[in-house]
């Protein structure tokens, strides 16, 4: 075991919405990754009796990082380290493995939906023993520790390549190289009726799944091709590549434009879906129909009876604050509680652990349930397929029937990505200082009922999280929300969220950009966003 000294501590290892995310080059800097791992291990207790899961989404630097982490774990006498073959493990599969193996936690090497490769991004996420992302108390502790570290311990021993299964003993640490796929697909098989889905898909209901050259390719092939017996070409971009083949593995209409074109313009398939780099996000498309992720959560909640894993009912639901209230309408009808949390999956952990909720989701293409403690892209895809197989209808019919029953929450998110930090902070600061005066004033033809910076008290441990996003709520319950992203690595990303409810008697077939126009225009008039950013349109519109 060597103790490596470094000249001056790193002061910038503050985890964001979901782990520490930096450019790949930053993570290639000498000692940078090692120090962060040392800080993580110092934040965990009882390493000597513990199991740790380590895997990643296969992006540039994945295997090298896993090697270093295993060597640092050996130096810290971690009892057992579990690594998947080829180092590939999706975020939801990691969450499941942590729970199944009673591990103390897991380290996921991923910058999720950010591009990969030497010019892209890299990241490290820590999940704790419940399988979910580490809460702020722990990430703050890690950040503090990282700023003080001037050395770390490592055992620079030759490790096997991670291409074969096996068990190895190094000093007091056991290294297990396992199959990262089977446990996860078995879990899916317990929740869903694979036969019903595959029969449906073989009878004239065509599927295309886009893995975006990222981690879900092998999982999707295992489930759709090997288990369900569908033709291999139902999975596109199915081989994980270090740079995702140049794709930006963020499943939305801008970055998954090829898939969007196949479904929305060419109408070549009945159903299309995509996942992000680490497999926790999902986009759902039908022929000629895009499903807004907020609506997806509402549809999932309204249709639990179609899915074997949830037939016995659900205890409650939760959504992040910027997610539309579509799911609230369903929860009210089902007479179950609906919680509103800050952005980021870590806020769902306590609610799931205490069985206050069964399902949860975010507007950012994330949906999940109590089967793991992460959002789960393939789970959402299978859920949708099961509902469609049970109802035998198209995605657009399902959406229309849903809106006819519950009304439609027109919703859109506008992202201004990687704009100059000072501009983003200026816009955010301007709105912050206007909040007090906006209350009672008119906005988009309505009175402003609430104008505040969202803060959250966790109902389980009473911890408080402040400054979680600026919001205006109007007297018709329309909402406008402004946040700064906590996952970007270049400049700053400004997110604007717009929501307006139409009841079933109103027009349910508008383009959301038209339905929301008064809100969009008035926010721009208030904050001068297009002028200050010098952008006529946002980078991404969802
Ligand atoms: C974004 C999303 C948020 C999500 C987070 C992590 O955060 O808005 O809803 O939980 O990414 O997703 P932000 O701070 O950039 O808005 V992932 O797929 O990166 O783990
Ligand atoms: Co992700």
Give the helix/strand layout:
Layout: E1 2-5, E2 20-23, H1 24-28, H2 32-43, E3 51-56, H3 62-75, E4 80-84, H4 91-100, E5 105-109, E6 121-128, H5 136-148, E7 151-154, E8 166-170, E9 173-178, H6 182-191, H7 194-202, E10 207-210, H8 216-227, E11 235-236, H9 257-265, E12 271-275, E13 282-286, E14 289-291, H10 293-302, E15 317-320, H11 326-334, E16 338-341, H12 349-353, E17 359-362, E18 366-369, H13 377-391, H14 395-406, E19 408-419, H15 421-438, E20 442-443, E21 446-453, E22 456-457, E23 464-465, E24 470-474, E25 479-484, E26 492-502, H16 512-515, H17 517-527, H18 529-533, E27 540-541
Parallel strand pairs: 3-4, 3-5, 4-9, 10-11, 10-12, 15-16, 15-17
Antiparallel strand pairs: 1-7, 2-6, 5-6, 8-9, 12-13, 13-14, 17-18, 19-26, 19-27, 20-21, 21-24, 22-23, 24-25, 25-26
Helix pairs in contact: 2-3, 2-5, 7-13, 10-11
The protein binds alpha-D-glucose-1-phosphate-6-vanadate and cobalt (II) ion (CO).
GO cellular component, one term: cytosol
InterPro entries: A-D-PHexomutase_a/b/a-I, A-D-PHexomutase_a/b/a-I/II/III, A-D-PHexomutase_a/b/a-II, A-D-PHexomutase_a/b/a-III, A-D-PHexomutase_C_sf, A-D-PHexomutase_CS, Alpha-D-phosphohexomutase_SF, PGM
GO biological process, one term: carbohydrate metabolic process
**Strands of the largest sheet, in order across it?**
2-6-5-3-4-9-8
Could you name the ranges where pLDDT drops below 50 across 5 or more consecutive residues?
none
Bound chemical compounds = alpha-D-glucose-1-phosphate-6-vanadate, cobalt (II) ion
Structural class: alpha/beta
In percent, how much strand structure appears in the residues?
15-25%
